[in-house]
Amino acid sequence: xxxxxxxxxxxxxTMHKPWFALYAGIRPTLVIDRRGQPTQWGVGTWQVPADEDxxxxxxxxxxxxxxxxxxxxIGTGHPPALIYRAPVLPFLPGHLxxxxxxxxxx
Length: 106
What we know:
Blueprint: E1 9-16, E2 28-32, E3 35-38, E4 42-48, E5 54-61, E6 66-74, E7 81-85, E8 95-98
Parallel strand pairs: 1-7
Antiparallel strand pairs: 1-4, 2-3, 2-5, 5-6, 7-8
């Protein structure tokens, strides 16, 4: 008899690039539990396990080095919407946090 597993939950991540950045043509990579997934700037949704914590990371890669790294572990009660803000300079870290409830995605 199969064991019932809970359906995965969906999270929304808004990838925000500053209007003025000293790099061009670079897209973010989202890492969920050590599995990288190339993404686009803007809003996207991904599945994470419903019954356990998930570690999300984001970085940018310019063919020479990674930069803009940010990481966050979300629990089962964590808000389902996150914002990643990329740095202006290609050697600074990024920021990944929960989006304020009712706030705009920006």
